[in-house]
Amino acid sequence: MGNSLCMKVRKEYGEKARALLSAQGILDCQRKIKPEGMWILIPLLRPVDANISGKLGCLGDAEVIEAELPPAQSRSKTLESILRGSVPDGLVELLPKSYDAIGDIIVLESLDPQLAPYKSDVGRSLLEINPGAKTVLLKSGKVDGKFRVPSHELLAGEDKRATVHQEHGIRLKVDVSKAYFSPRLGSERRRVAGQVADGETIVDLFAGIGPFSLMIAKRSKARVYSIDLNPEAISLLKENISMNKLRGEVIPILGDAAEAAERLGRVADRVIMNLPGSSLDFLGSAAKVLKAEGGMIHLYVFSRGDAIREASAQFMDASVNLFRRREIRIARLVKQVAPRDWQVALDIWAMPA
């Protein structure tokens, strides 16, 4: 293996350099990034031209050199490649394309009924693809009922439901049999937490085990009232508070969101409403906790078709008599939940009536 082109940059600039080089289309993903003392070597596809060089001035004393970098490991193992020959050819295309990794537990949302005779094979194959995983579960019921907790079937590995999940600097004890949690909102939680300033008061109306609340309190000196109706979720939230070193304060509240909002009164600079199936029904509670001068609402709803337009219309219709002023500042698709259905995030500035 001979020398090849790479950028030598100090470690503190490593992630910024990788992102910039990737955005410019010159990051070589076929070779590994290599640490070298206080530096890292980032592989390049081609020399850095003058146009790109001007955009890299924020990387300190970075330089382009030649060095020997090992090839990136091939991620050749897939469910299809492992199970081809064990599963009939006509069913291979039905194998799941995605799954959730929660700590060392893998959770499949669904499995085609035709694959039922092969579900143990699917589970074992997922453990092979993910060497850090210990358990593979299949959701066997809808997320419904009072506490939104699905049931799960063990496909492979240890028969357990509890784990510790790490997400953008916080640790979360999760028990999928006791409280709902989705790792797919990790980037969304970080986005919202990044908007919070020191000194803010936040009301998290449907906090669950606390991923939004903890992410905010980890990053800012904020006070977060974290409400949930599920006693198991609040118990896990309390454990999670003790597991993390927080800059802010998280105050768990067990109870109904509407009743808790009534008791809290106008304390909130910001309200988080992550209960997409029912959040519109609680806009009145958001109006009761927002400060009189107004504040932000982070609202999550399910929508279909032209999802952002539909979600925005749903909010405007449901909130017409609740706020003196309201403005949707950001509307974005968070995740797809069915072929034409989406979870949509709306960042709304509103002043209560």
From TrEMBL:
Superkingdom in the source lineage: Archaea
Reactions it catalyzes: guanosine(37) in tRNA + S-adenosyl-L-methionine = N(1)-methylguanosine(37) in tRNA + S-adenosyl-L-homocysteine + H(+)
GO biological process, alphabetically ordered: tRNA N1-guanine methylation
CDD domains tied to this protein: AdoMet_MTases (cd02440)
Pfam families, sorted: TRM5-TYW2_MTfase (PF02475), Trm5_N (PF18093), TYW2_N_2 (PF25133)
GO cellular component, one term: cytoplasm
Molecular function via GO: tRNA (guanine(37)-N1)-methyltransferase activity
Record's keyword terms, sorted: Cytoplasm, Methyltransferase, S-adenosyl-L-methionine, Transferase, tRNA processing
Residue intervals of the SAM-dependent methyltransferase TRM5/TYW2-type domain: 99-352
Keyword Zinc included in the entry's annotation: no
The enzyme's E.C. designation: 2.1.1.228
Protein name: tRNA (guanine(37)-N(1))-methyltransferase
Organism: Candidatus Methanomethylicus mesodigestus
